[in-house]
Amino acid sequence: MPQRNMRTSPYTVRPHPSQTGELNLDRIVVNLSTSPLNEQDKDILSKGENFVPTPKNLPLVDIIASVEHSLSSVDPQKAYG
User: Could you give phi then psi for residue 68, rounded to 5 degrees?
Assistant: First the structure.
């Protein structure tokens, strides 16, 4: 039996149409406002309503403070079970 290379995939990886220039943003994004949309606006809107931009830097101090605050209200007897 031949060995399978774990790095290869049986699926073809294709780039998103917006990366290849095949995407017609005027057909995807409908502007219902009176102000015109530039290409960058159309590109972001074409990602859909579930698109959430990710921050470049995580707010680590806020995360640590929230976790510490949450842990301060936990009963130590229940925490160590």
Answer: -60, -40
Provide the residue ranges of all domains of the chain, joining segments of one domain with +.
16-50
Report the phi/psi class of residue 38: left, alpha or beta, with left for phi > 0 and alpha for psi in -120 to 50. Answer: beta
Rg of the chain on CA atoms, in Å: 24
In whole angstroms, give the CA distance from residue 72 to residue 70.
Answer: 5
pTM: 0.41
Q: Across the chain, how many H-helices and E-strands are there? A: 5, 0
Q: What is the pLDDT of residues 1-16, one digit of tens each?
A: 555 555 665 666 666 6
Q: 42-69 pLDDT, tens per residue?
A: 888 888 888 888 888 989 999 999 999 9
What is the distance between the alpha carbons of residues 22 and 25, in angstroms, rounded to a whole number?
9
CB atoms within 10 A of CB 32: 4
Taking the CB of residue 79, how many other CB atoms lie within 10 A of it? Answer: 8
